[in-house]
Amino acid sequence: MDDQFKKIISHAKEYGFVYPSSEIYEGLSAVYDYGPMGVELKNNIKSYWWKSMVQMHDNIVGLDAAIFMHPKTWKASGHVDAFNDPMIDNKDSNKRYRADVLVEDHIAKIEAKVNKEVAKAAKRFGDSFDEAQYKSTNPRVMGYLDKMQGIQDRLNEAMKAGDMTAMKTLIEDEGIVCPISGTKNWTEVRQFNLMFSTQLGNIAGEETALYLRPETAQGIFVNFLNVQKTTRQKIPFGIAQIGKAFRNEIVARQFIFRMREFEQMEMQFFIQPGTEMKWYEYWKETRMKWHRSLGTPESHLRFHKHENLAHYANAAADIEFQFPFGFKELEGIHSRTDFDLGSHQELSGKKLQYFDPELNENYVPYVLETSIGCDRMFLAMLSESLQEEVVPDSKGNETTRTVMKLHPVLAPVKAAILPLVKNKPALTEHAKKIFDELKLYTNCQYDEKDAIGRRYRRQDAIGTPYCITVDFETIEDDGKVTLRDRDSLEQKRVTVAEAKAIILENCSEASLLG
Ligand code: GAP
Question: Is residue 504 part of a domain?
Answer without folding.
Answer: yes
